[in-house]
Specification:
The chain is built from 12 helices and 9 strands. The chain is α/β, with parallel strands linked by helices. Helix 2 packs across helix 4 and helix 10 crosses helix 11. Bound molecules: iron/sulfur cluster.
Length: about 280
């Protein structure tokens, strides 16, 4: 990280606080190397009591963690009861750790429900109206990938293949964005926050070899149209849908086909579990 000019990071998951020894070690190592850890993210699933939460946060604070980003959203409340989130927030206050609530705007909505249980998006729609899910992207930054594709497919405007290709005729310059970037736990750089695409850490910081990264190279230089054409020509890809909500949904459909149906073993379509579980 230092070699590539990155002096400040955040740590997310999965759930980084599930393995306290490992997050402690990472914080210690970052400190030794002079890399600032801006914040650690948590989903609060680990919370069991005020005392144990304060003990853990104190250990992390002693190792340099100044701020905790705490997930607060209806997507998160589908899995984690709000009582755990409140417990972590209280433990942060007690131990003097700065809270980054992600995002506080949802606290009023979530507080409508029984805080001891998780609640589905359907329950939110029943209480706040049928358009609740469709309105969420105006309140929360949604990356068009992962399970968000499925959640928002039903409520998004659909586009035909030719519309998507003509509207996105340039290459995907998103792939070069580095304002906010992630490495996964396998040591892969995730270009453009495009989940399921990967660049090995040793290949970062120099021009990509098109031989090893043909799909990313095509997406960058020719965009979704070039990627679709190559998938059809070389791998007999046939779109299952007549329309898609975005170029990224189509991109994911092609990549999933390549990994699961054509068994493409590639260093750039990683981790394979991403495709197996969505
Ligand atoms: S089309 Fe694919 S490569 Fe381009 S921004 Fe979307 S997910 Fe990333």
């Amino acid at each position: 990280m230092r070699r590539l000019g990155c002096n400040s990071i955040h740590i997310g998951g999965g759930e980084p606080l599930l393995k306290p020894e490992k997050i402690c070690k990472i914080l210690e190592t970052a400190k030794e190397m002079g890399i600032n850890v801006e914040y650690v993210e948590t989903n609060s699933s680990w919370y069991s009591s005020h005392g144990s939460a304060c003990d853990l946060l104190k250990r992390l604070k002693d190792r340099g963690m100044g701020a905790l980003l705490v997930s607060i959203s209806p997507f998160h409340n589908e899995y984690i009861p709000f009582s755990k989130v409140k417990g972590v927030l209280n433990a942060c206050l007690a131990t003097g750790i700065q809270i980054i609530p992600w995002i506080a705007d949802f606290i009023a909505d979530i507080s409508t429900f029984d805080e001891q249980k998780p609640h589905s998006l359907d329950e939110y729609s029943q209480v706040f109206g049928d358009s609740y899910v469709a309105r969420l992207p105006t309140r929360y930054w949604i990356s068009p990938g992962g399970r968000a594709l499925e959640t928002f497919r039903e409520v998004s405007e659909q586009h035909t293949l030719s519309e998507l290709v003509s509207r996105n005729s340039a290459g995907c310059l998103e792939l070069t964005g580095t304002n906010h970037f992630h490495f996964d736990l396998y040591g892969n750089y995730i270009p453009g926050l495009c989940a399921g695409l990967a660049i090995r850490k040793n290949d970062v910081g120099k021009p990509l070899d098109p031989e090893h990264y043909p799909f990313i190279t095509t997406l960058y230089s020719e965009g979704i149209g070039g990627f679709l054409a190559k998938a059809e020509e070389l791998f007999a890809f046939m779109p299952k849908n007549n329309s898609y909500s975005s170029k990224c949904e189509l991109c994911f459909a092609i990549r999933k086909y390549l990994v699961l149906e054509k068994n493409i073993q590639s260093r750039e379509l990683q981790p394979a579990g991403h495709y197996e579980n969505l």
